[in-house]
Design a protein that fits this description.
There is one protein chain. This protein has about 280 residues and is α+β, with helices and mostly antiparallel strands. About 35% of the residues lie in helices and about 25% in strands. The longest helix is centred in the first third of the chain and has 36 residues. The N and C termini lie far apart (about 50 Å).
């Protein structure tokens, strides 16, 4: 039997509450695993690519999350940073980045996070981002805004670029960084580089930073960055096509410009671009 539209909406809303509770349950349990190894550093690690590391804690958290979803929602699809995309042909797609900012984690820097996202028919509907070492939990639900530790957050309202901070993804070389950021580098009040994509997105969402330029976000992280920022009032476009709405379909990587407001975005988007070596 096919549900009527109003009943379908009620059913989705009911499911969303359960999904949110389950995601928070997993994060609450996993924070302990995350923090234990963050402080004692008793784990193995390896370099996947230059400057891109994975630890046994990454793998442990991701496998635990996959098992958790399979037990609770066996028909749902799952994508993660470290292992394969499990496509169940479902309307619901869960995503996990077990440690966003692994290099920070390995060096005892607190800007590193457990990231969980949920999409319904490609649309990001739930984002959870926990920074256990800072005791910070960002939560975003579609249509309900974004919160930090239960308090609503909102993005930067300052419209003058020379009064706000810029953050950008580290690209393993100053030449490529300069090629991507362009003249904006000299037009802002200062530069931040967190080495953690979700930390940078959350900083824009909470008004600490005016603009963030994020390269190479995977399907395990960009939907959460997008949702937290969007629900906090940010303007978001792709680095490649900044003059058209962001394409939310599929599981390919994204390169994003996240700005605290539309006026900041307009000032930035004509100057930034992908470096030739990354196109």
């Amino acid at each position: 039997m096919q549900l009527k539209p109003q009943n379908l909406l009620k059913n989705i809303i009911y499911k969303m509450e359960r999904y949110k509770d389950k995601a928070l349950e997993f994060v609450d349990k996993t924070n302990k695993t995350f923090l234990g190894s963050f402080y004692d550093k008793n784990y193995s690690s390896k370099e996947k690519n230059h400057g891109d590391f994975v630890t046994e804690i990454d793998l442990k958290i991701e496998r635990s999350f996959r098992d958790f979803i399979k037990v609770n929602y066996p028909t749902h699809s799952i994508v993660g940073e470290e292992e394969i995309f499990e496509d169940k042909k479902s309307d619901w797609l869960w995503a996990i980045d077990p440690i966003d900012g692994t290099t920070n984690y390995m060096n005892g820097t607190p800007e590193c996070a457990i990231v969980i996202g949920l999409r319904y028919r490609d649309i990001p509907v739930l984002g959870v981002c926990s920074f256990p070492a800072m005791n910070q939990l960002y939560l975003s639900e579609s249509g309900k805004g974004s919160c930090l530790n239960g308090n609503k957050i909102s993005s930067q309202r300052e419209e003058n670029l020379n009064r706000v901070l810029l953050s950008a993804t580290y690209l393993n070389g100053p030449e490529r960084m300069m090629a991507m950021v362009g003249d904006v580098w000299d037009s802002v009040a200062g530069i931040r580089m967190e080495m953690c994509s979700l930390a940078e997105a959350c900083n824009v969402a909470s008004g600490k930073v005016g603009v963030s330029i994020l390269y190479g976000l995977g399907p395990h992280e960009w939907p959460v960055a997008y949702l937290i920022a969007k629900e906090a009032g940010c303007s978001i476009v792709s680095l490649e096509n900044p003059n058209i709405p962001l394409d939310l379909k599929g599981i390919k990587n994204r390169n994003l410009i996240i700005a605290g407001n539309e006026r900041l975005l307009e000032q930035v988007k004509e100057f930034v671009q992908l470096p030739p070596s990354l196109k």
